[in-house]
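Forgive a beginner's question, but might I ask you for the amino acids of a protein and the tokens describing how it folds?
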Amino acid sequence: MEEMEVREATPADVDAICALLDAPTRATERLLAERSVVVGEADVEANASAAEDDRQIVGVCAFDYWDDAVQVTRLASETGAVDALLAPALERAAAAGVPVEVLVVDGGLVEALRAAGFEETEGGPRFEGRVTRVFRQEP
């Protein structure tokens, strides 16, 4: 798979985002309406052209500015390119001089977040009955 390109999500991306987040359509539509959401696109095959039809969404990051921090509420990547997906949230936080916090529902992203300079802080809120973890990166 080629390098991932990050762009703002559009309503046309809802089905792909639903699949990545394992979320219902209605919740994903609300996510796009209420948060800043970016998606990562990559070529379907390593030798594929850059034509739009040959690209698929392989990652998503949803974030917002709350309580003196940029908070990433949803993050998923098939390619492990978490750094690229987090870049828009990190840029927003740097411009505001605030930290970025990432809420992690499962442990799949922990190593990628640590590699990107995030440190675990405290336990997060329960999400659908599951324990969450909060990772933070200071500006």
